[in-house]
Here is the input.
Amino acid sequence: MSVEGTSPSDRSTKSSWHGFLNSLRERMQPAAEPTTLPDDPYSGLREVVDDSRPAERFATEAAAAGCCVHRVGEENWLATIRDILKSSSKTQRAADSSPRGTAQAEARSHVLTFPRSHVPTFSRSHVPTFPRSHVPTFSRSHVPTFPRSHVVVEPSPETELTADRVSALREALAADNITVVTERDDETLFNADAAITGVLAAIAETGTFVCASGASSARGSSLIPPVHIALLSAAQIVGDLFDYFDQLDPKDGLPANVNLITGPSKTADIEGILVTGVHGPGAVHVVLLE
Here is the structure.
């Protein structure tokens, strides 16, 4: 032991710790000129900057996501929606891509086929005959009737689907044997053939459009019916999500539910096989007014 009561090894260890702490203090000294953040810290993350053709970018991205984009003039919006609803090819494509359509196709592939030689033949003598009195008769009242197609239409003064346009839709679709309903309860939504809504905004970068719940719009209108038709104008398209959120003012109150919709519903949960129209509409049409 030394005179001071500590061994040389203890003094060496203490000196090493002092040196380590001093080096940390030197590294933690504030810089003479602190680094300042750029005026727009998100500029490096943006893909759409000062895009002079947002409608073109939105239409391209929305189509790539699976939407059917219809770019029309103000005078052709009604005829376009009528054509969409009457188009059997688009409706059949949505049905074929649904889980039910896929299951039916798989079931058909498992049906056994037999050569003609294996099919038994019967002569006329094997066919039983019945007197005319045993044949039931049916009147016109027995013929089943099928309900008209029902389309949920959601007017909203904050979107392009105004009350005046809803009135025009109701009158035009009545001629096509389509009933326009504005009720938004669950039973109506789950039994509707399609839904027509406006949107609050659209995102050019990803081909996304924004639907939000509110006093005049239900949460399920854009999610439950098998076909969704969204009406929007080119003026509603912004570059990216940063631009959209910049428009929102928390003081005005935010919606309880905001849906950012990019194409029809898709899932690949089962064995990685992509299926369209499972958790929402199987067909999404965008009517873009330019």
Q: What stands out?
A: The longest strand covers residues 227-233.
